[in-house]
Design brief:
Distance between the termini: 24 Å
Strand order of the largest sheet: 1-2-3-4-5-7-6
Strand content: 25-35%
CATH superfamily: Ribonuclease Z/Hydroxyacylglutathione hydrolase-like
Largest sheet: 7 strands, mixed
Number of helices: 6
Helix content: 25-40%
Number of domains: 1
CATH class: Alpha Beta
Number of strands: 15
Shape: globular
Oligomer: single chain
Order of helices and strands: EEEHEHHEHEEEEEEEEHEEH
Length: 233
């Protein structure tokens, strides 16, 4: 059985999640904590629940989603999983946006490991479409969904019908594509070919805003019109 705790961090109201099973092993998704107080909220919850962090899941590496990542990697000595193409977000997109709007840059990204070696700790590891990440009894499938950024990912726990959609798909909206590395056609392809085909009961946990489910987005998301179709069993 999956347990989920939701946090909202930083001025962009970025959603961060802790997901764990009965063993207490947990994954931290998109840790956007941008201050010591926000970081303490997250780590305090982990300590109070007696959880054991296993990894960090990064749907993408825009600054508002990774502010707390380096601190958590150092504290827990756990790997952070990301798409290789997100080096562009770290090196180009974040520098441009943070410089333009006066936001601090995230702490330096940990040493990068290869996608074929998922046993290293304390570093970022590249993953690709179809890879799986085990967190106790939970198994998160990697779905590459570029478009909002060059290396956007979603993470699917198929048995629990949970999808971490990052900034690819929102409740009633889709990710913006005007930042460096974004591409509208690529995003729409990712959504239609990778996400809308999932079980309609799959709960969507996005990077911002409220949760939804695939059936609702298929039928009602105005950004996906005129292609909405009713969910059929």
């Amino acid at each position: 059985m999956i347990h989920i705790e939701h946090f909202t961090f930083n001025s962009f109201q970025t959603n961060s999640f802790i997901l764990w099973d009965e063993s207490g092993k947990c994954a931290i998704a998109d840790p956007g904590c941008s201050s010591e107080a926000e970081l303490s909220r997250l780590t305090g919850f982990i300590a109070d629940k007696g959880l054991e962090p296993v990894c960090i899941l990064l749907t993408h590496c825009h600054f508002d989603h990774v502010y707390g990542m380096a601190s958590l990697v150092r504290k827990y000595e756990i790997p952070a999983y990301a798409d290789m193409s997100e080096m562009y977000s770290l090196q180009v997109t974040n520098a441009k946006l943070c410089g333009q709007f006066g936001f601090p840059m995230p702490d330096e990204f940990p040493i990068i490991g290869s996608s074929s070696d998922c046993n290293h700790t304390g570093r970022a590891i590249f993953v690709r479409d179809g890879d799986t990440i085990d967190v106790g009894s939970l198994r998160f499938e990697v779905i590459q969904t570029p478009g909002h950024s060059k290396g956007g990912l979603c993470f699917l726990e198929r048995n629990e019908k949970i999808l971490l959609s990052g900034d690819t798909l929102f409740a009633g909206a889709i990710g913006r594509t005007d930042h460096p590395g974004g591409d509208y056609e690529t995003l729409m392809k990712s959504i239609f070919e990778k996400l809308l085909m999932l079980d309609g009961e799959t709960r969507v946990l996005p990077g911002h805003g409220p949760s939804s489910d695939i059936a609702t987005e298929r039928m009602t998301n105005p950004f996906l019109l005129p292609f909405n179709e009713p969910y059929e069993d």
